[in-house]
Amino acid sequence: MNARGLLRYVDALLDGRRPRPFDADDFEAAQIRTAIELRAARTASDAPSEHFLTDLHRRLAARMPGGQDTPRPLPGPRATRRQVVVGASAAALAAGAGIVAGATSPKLRVF
Asked: Which of 55, 14, 57 is nearest to 32 (CA)?
């Protein structure tokens, strides 16, 4: 592929479009990997597109029995995955700090 074609390929990746496939050599593959990493590093790159969310909502609403527009939430409090990870990380950090503090503090003498 020539330089202009590679530039179009990389621009398509950075714009979130699907570029046409081609057989890449090692240099071109390295540039493509860099473009993919740059695209993934953008702020909110993990957020779904508005088009995807609208289509998903439409498809889910079509499958809901009785013409419900949105599903009913389950009763009771529910922790998100992020809350569980943050809580577990805080507990591990506190345990580690306690171990370090216990190992580095001078021994208490009882007279």
From this structure: 14
Cα(41)–Cα(20) distance, rounded to whole angstroms? 23
Domain-embedded: residue 81 = no
Residue 23: inside a domain, yes or no? yes
Residue 54 lies in a domain: no
pLDDT tens digit sequence for 58-102: 888 888 776 555 556 666 677 788 888 888 888 888 888 877 777
Q: Is there a domain that residue 109 lies in?
A: no
Distance CA 13, CA 107 (A): 60
- 5 contact partners, CB below 8 Å, separation of at least 6: 22
What's the domain range around 23? 1-44
| Global confidence as pTM | 0.34
Nearest-10 crossing angle of helices 26-41, 3-14: 20
Nearest alpha-carbon partner for 10 in 107, 1, 83, 53? 1
